[in-house]
Amino acid sequence: MADRRPALFDMILKLRSATPARIFLPRAGAGLTTRATLDFQLAHAEARDAVEERLDVDTLFDELTARGLTAVCVRSAARDRRSFLLRPDLGRRLDDESRERLKSFAGVYDLAFVIAEGLSARAIARHALPILERTLSSLDRTSWKIAPIVLAEQGRVALGDDIGETLGARLVAVLIGERPGLSSPDSLGVYLTFAPRVGRTDAERNCLSNIRPQGLAYDEATRKLLYLCNEARRRGLTGVELKDEAETLAPEGPHAIDVKNEP
Question: For domain 51-260, is the CATH number 3.40.50.720?
Fold first, then answer.
């Protein structure tokens, strides 16, 4: 009988090369090999570090203003990292001082961008500006009135509802660091909500997840976000009733969908 082990080994190598997931880990007796064990411990440490890291708000603020963008810094009601992690509800609403600061920028906006560290400041530091720049460069400022960019410390997704409502925005897009996985400590998410207000549920949002070079690429994420923004404004909703059908459209231009001619 032919030895099938080489073919099986080749198949395992192909499967392992196709995913960062830990599959078919090598074993030494009843346990994993030393290398596999150390790799797991390193990934676990990186995930923990990503959760504990803080967003460098001052540097990000300077980078935004250097690009000619108006930015405003706010905080959630979570006063430190420990309370942010233990009390998710505090990360979903503004503190009183921040709310008063935002009121001075209130108006009538089509779209507000919120950048929040969430559970991975590393994701924001690496990926937020590339996504924001690509999106803003594709939006026609004559038909889209954009609110000042909001930098939120200790913020969770729902903080965007409080911010959008305070600013008077029809749509809010929250760029946030996602919960780190054991192979993705720097994954960025974008959550889009129509008519943001305190009390919105996750079913009323659209989410683009795992934005990073090893996941959802910048240009593809931008294309999907632009599509969702257009459809949300046209149909007056986001969430489970708004499906992401951007991939069914023929790509045009560097970001696949150019919204400058949209109503």
Answer: no
